[in-house]
Amino acid sequence: MGISDYYSKDEIVSNSVFEGFTTKFTATHTRGLNHHFYFHHLFGELYSDQDHLWQMFSTQLSYSFLPVIFENSIGINSTGFSLSTKGMWINSTFYSGNTSRTGRKSGFLNSALSLIHLSEINITGKITSELNIEVPVIYYTLRPGYSTLDPDQTIGNGATAFNVARSGKFRSILNQPSFQIGSDFFYSLKENFFLKVGFRYHFLKIQFPKEFSSIDQSFNFGVRWTL
Amino acid sequence: MDTLKNIIYLLALFFFFGQGCKETLVGSSPADSPRENFDQLWQGFDQHYSYFEIKPYSWDSLYHSYFQTIDTISSDKLLFNVLSDLLSKLSDFHVTLRSDTEFYSSPPDPGTLDKILLELKYLNNISRSSDESPFLTADIREDISYLRIDTFRGKEYLFKEIDSILENLYYKKGLILDLRSNGGGSDINSQIVMSRFADKKTLIRKIRYRNGPQHTDFSKPIFDYVEPNGFYYDKPVVLLTDRSVYSAAEDFILGMRQFPDVLVLGERTAGSSGNPATFDLPNGWIYTVPRWQILQPENDSLYENTGLIPDTLVYQTERDDIFLQDAKMDAAVRLLLQ
Q1: Is the CB of residue B229 less than 8 Å from the CB of residue B195?
Q2: What is the ipTM of this complex?
Q3: Which of A5, A101, A133 to mutate to test the interface with B (most CBs of B within 10 A)?
Q4: How many CA atoms lie within 13 A of B272 on its CB side?
Q5: Is-cis flag, bond preceding A209, omega within 30?
Q6: What is the per-residue pLDDT for A151?
């Protein structure tokens, strides 16, 4: 689990930047050497300079296939791909004097195919490090509509799950740039049990129907054990 | 120990690098200056407002008209007045601007409902179930009931009281449903009440959202239906309206007039149908922008500004005021007795 310093702008809601610290939970499961499953959940409150509020929730599920490319005395290098789905939900509230008004709801649902490189390095006998970089290549992204949520706009055609699902857009790295750099350090307490400290830097930009962009810097702490 | 230090240095390096890139990659908030606040407000309406095509002013021309004034503004009070003046050109009840200390909206029409006159001259056995209830019931004569709906604001459960109210009124010959001075609220609440008068699934309105940067960008029309629900009231209803009927209360009339036993009597309604969204300015002030159009289901025409035309037009004259008469109530009673 960790703390995330979140800095974001969603022009569907406001032209102002909202920022704040959020709480993040992460669980990882590795099966064999190559198959990795991840679950991330992040929630918290972000504020603008004028103290308007976003309540934000985000959940991500992903699977990575990372075969070893080469191995030497320093460490192991793996390169592969990941499939992930990430949803974010934003509730906005604006304050003025003693009055509060609910603003637009926003967010996205993003499915991506990404390229990943992971380097595992032995620093000392007890400390190992993992450095990774992830660059999504192709996305399918659902966003609220220009004026309201898409289900409202498609009611005329039937607000079925299928109609809502097909209202998304395919995007590539060229028009929806994103990357994540991560660094984890593991300290071995016992043969199969490690303490972990890590850092993630994640940038995302979505450009329709209005721009959403965010930087999420998180420090996380946890444990890892192997069977 | 050196390794641990290196790790901490590396993490700190990542963090400070990340902090430095924030504004480059994501951008920053707009500056809080009179010019920027004016531009943001103007653009917010330019990108979202749904009724430019029926307004008498060109939004672009208004920008240039106020352009020179903005740079001379020296106080928040003056800025609020200038921005309010700009918005007043839209004459739209759903357009608002709010600072910590001030509030702008188009002033509502006072209407023709005289509650004191009604209570003294027309109504008997006046009843309201609680202070929160939006419904006031009364008898007009032994055979005619009166129901006033003050608002469509409030929790949904308050509006479900309509079932027991209509059940109690059902033994009478007909109902005068007074909507005057109802400023609207939630269209969900108005549809809860409306559904008790519906004899079958009925198209009550068409909606289209502004969905692009051009003033003429709209979604396909969304067809909005109401279905029978709860206690069905099938006796004659005369619905009283005037210029003080706004927004969700106008939606209510749009639906009610589709039903066979309902007659709308009075004056045109306010003509204010916008469904506003809230946005903020760089100085923290908040404003609301109507983002949809409602089309009348019969002919796809707008009623924004013009209002809904009743089936029977009845105006309150000076003579009515002098003789302490509510012309609409008198006409409604006559109709129900015919």
Answers
A1: yes
A2: 0.86
A3: A101
A4: 27
A5: yes
A6: 46
